[in-house]
Design goal:
The chain contains eleven helices and 15 strands. By secondary structure, the protein is an alpha/beta fold. The protein is globular. The structure holds D-malate.
């Protein structure tokens, strides 16, 4: 008889976004006359077409595959040199990152989960609350936690509270941690960390001989020039940090799939025997064994994001989504709800009306306004009392969401 990985049985519920999709489907089936009115602002999935420069490069990549002389079979597992080099030049100029420290993949969700392959058991893992659920669930699956309590918090994880009092940026803890997940601009709260706050985390990591897993999937949305885009802008991070980046939200690649991990040669972990081993070496080995590279046309398309035309087109996409975020922020504030995020990030984080909890707000928005939002509680106990609105949508849909939100709040008493 084949045994299973019993850690999966500790997982509390379905993964958040499929669970939301399930509820929306049930609502649509029960209310077929309202189904066409539904506007989805739940999952952070892009809505606008790919930039023209990306499309042209992908076509050219496919055309090359159609001709014997330029056909490409398996590529390098770590990614084509042309893309790794473009990333270093356009995203990490002056930060001392080399092309061979960049590993191309098919997504940051997979990367942030798969990275656990190179870490051993027994690490103290620090996770913000609320948090992107992938960090928690992949640690549960890997056996790095105990059981969850009634609030959904897993034994064995070090939770770092993020709330209105700390601006949704976790303070460094008194306790020791070995692995720390940070995500800035933050999913789900839209918070950003200042240079000083990131420097405090790097100092903590170095003092604790810990590794920071820095998820920068939303860095392109930063508007404030003082906010760092990369953890490697902080002195000392080359010794203690791994960064995750994606083409999903800037280039609109959620359906195309391309991302990358940056692991400096200087980041090391302990082997059981007491020696230090470069994490770069382990991730390279893992990548070669379990991954055969992102496809050639996709990597060509990703590189086009850094062409002059690509940069201008991506900037226009970001401006579009941030214009949506501004409308959503203004509407929520106008109806008297507490609003966070949405300034340097495509997520607006909103306090629920008094007496309504996060899933209650989800149900209310769906039933009364046919708008799908994400309940804050889906991101951890610390998200209770909040909901997240994604700014990834057409302008017309966002304007309609704003109208419906105003009407919904106007008809409900008291908030
Ligand atoms: C989200 O809505 O939180 C994101 O779409 C999740 C993701 O990028 O995987």
């Amino acid at each position: 008889m084949a045994t299973i990985n019993a850690n999966f049985l500790k997982l509390k519920a379905g993964y958040l976004f499929p669970e939301i999709a399930r509820r929306v489907k049930a609502y649509s089936e029960a209310n077929p006359d309202l189904a066409a009115r539904i506007i989805r602002c739940g999952i952070g999935d892009v809505t606008e077409p790919l930039p023209a420069a990306v499309v042209d490069a992908m076509h050219a990549g496919v055309a090359a595959m159609a001709v014997r002389e330029t056909f490409m079979g398996y590529g390098p597992e770590q990614g084509y040199e042309f893309l790794r080099q473009a990333i270093v030049e356009h995203q990490f100029a002056g930060l001392g990152i080399a092309a061979d420290e960049v590993f191309i993949s098919d997504g940051s969700k997979c990367d942030t989960g798969n990275i656990l392959d190179i870490f051993g058991p027994g690490n103290v893992i620090a996770i913000t609350d609320p948090v992107y659920p992938v960090y928690v669930d992949t640690n549960v699956m890997a056996g790095n936690t105990g059981e969850a309590n009634a609030r959904g918090a897993y034994a064995g994880l070090l939770y770092l509270p993020c709330n209105a009092a700390n601006g949704f940026v976790a303070d460094v803890p008194r306790e020791h941690a070995d692995l720390i997940y940070l995500c800035f601009p933050n999913n789900p709260t839209g918070a950003v960390a200042t240079r000083e706050q990131l420097a405090a985390w790097v100092a903590y990591a170095r003092a604790n001989d810990a590794i920071i897993l820095f998820d920068a999937a939303y860095e392109a949305f930063i508007q404030d020039p003082a906010i760092p885009h990369s953890i490697f802008e902080i002195d000392g991070a080359r010794e203690c940090a791994i960064e995750f980046r994606s083409f999903s939200k800037n280039g609109g690649f959620t359906g195309v799939r391309c991302a990358y991990v940056v692991i400096p040669q200087t980041v090391t972990g302990h082997s059981g025997a007491g020696g230090r081993v470069p994490l770069h070496q382990l991730w390279s080995r893992r990548h070669s064994t379990k991954f055969n590279g992102a496809s050639y046309p996709v990597q060509r398309a990703a590189a086009a994001v850094f062409s002059d035309a690509g940069k201008a087109q991506v900037a226009a996409l970001i401006a579009h989504y941030m214009g949506n975020a501004k409308l959503l922020r203004e509407t929520c504030a106008a109806v008297g709800l507490p609003v966070f995020g949405g300034v340097n990030a495509p997520y607006v984080w909103v306090g629920c009306p008094q007496g309504v909890d996060a899933w209650g707000m989800f149900d209310k928005m769906l039933a009364e306004a046919q708008v799908v939002i994400t309940p804050g509680a889906g991101f951890g106990a610390g998200g209770e009392g909040y909901f997240r609105i994604s700014a990834f949508n057409s302008r017309a849909n966002v304007e309609e969401v704003c109208r419906r939100l105003k009407a919904l709040v106007a008809h409900a008493h008291p908030y």
